[in-house]
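Reopening: structure tokens for the NAP complex, inputs below.
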Amino acid sequence: MTVVGLGPMGAALADALLAHGHPTTVWNRSPHRAEPLVTRGARRADTITEAVAASPLVVVCLKDYEAMYAVLDPAADALSGRLVVNHSSGTPEEARAAASWADGHSVGYLDGAIMVPVPAVGRPDAVLLYSGPEPLFTAHRAALESLGGATYLGADPSLAVLYNTALLGMMYASLNGFLHAAALVGTAGVSVESFAGIALDWFLPSVIGTILRSEVPQIDARTYPGDAGSMEMNLTALDHIVRTSAEQGVDVDFPAALRTLAERAIAEGYAANNYSVMIEVFRKQRAAVS
Ligand SMILES: NC(=O)c1ccc[n+]([C@@H]2O[C@H](COP(=O)([O-])OP(=O)(O)OC[C@H]3O[C@@H](n4cnc5c(N)ncnc54)[C@H](OP(=O)(O)O)[C@@H]3O)[C@@H](O)[C@H]2O)c1
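Re-run output (same inputs, fresh job):
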């Protein structure tokens, strides 16, 4: 196996391959980053061409897709007939363009997304997502499993980065929800530790997780019965959060943004539906942003 890109994440991928006993060749633009890996048994390639020629599977982990082209373009001939598994972060369009670039050079291509921090790489419970031609994933699955739990998403090469971005968006929304709530109860002198016992240990899994999970079939069916709670009711609740935040002297922008979204749903005719109808609001893009 060859690993191209030895930042914190690329070095962790190389270490995981070494730990699983794979002969591993490494290359990095700044060569000194290879030294600790060489000490642990990796072979350092002096040039990118030598690096990609050393193995049928080339694991790439660079800052972004632009860096990937800067590194791999000069070695495109040597890559022909090999498989590139690109773990660099980017957008779906960039992933599709990379798959076309690879195709144009007769290079196999899988796109990957690493969903765990550096210390978790190589553990079986680590989550790494892959997309691209299924036969390529199946043929190299065992090697990829050395990096962590490898989940295949589908043939469209953009799926891995699309899932990655969607899950990160969900993460930031959830983090903000908890942190705003902790700031709010903190105005009464409640420690975050004390609040976490209710918010994270019970409310998040048992209330939010359970309710949302039970509504998934209806969301897929695009039916949002509001008999147990309508958008009108939810708007009142969101208004209470805005007013309570103002009364307690904490940020109101975050709950106000949520209230604005609920108002938009009601203006679009969803007043009698349940909260999951918000997905219909999110499905429409209102203004282009860069
Ligand atoms: N670190 C994490 O926790 C984490 C988690 C999930 C996903 N990822 C993703 O993994 C990828 C790598 O992340 P990282 O944490 O290892 O560090 P990074 O700072 O994102 O990337 C560092 C690597 O990119 C190389 N690089 C940057 N620009 C380059 C260029 N123009 N030409 C050639 N090489 C270039 C660096 O080479 P030099 O050493 O020569 O500068 C180094 O090998 C990123 O896409 C990141 O989003 C990281």
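The mean pLDDT is 96. The radius of gyration is 24 Å. Marking as resolved unless the reporter disagrees.
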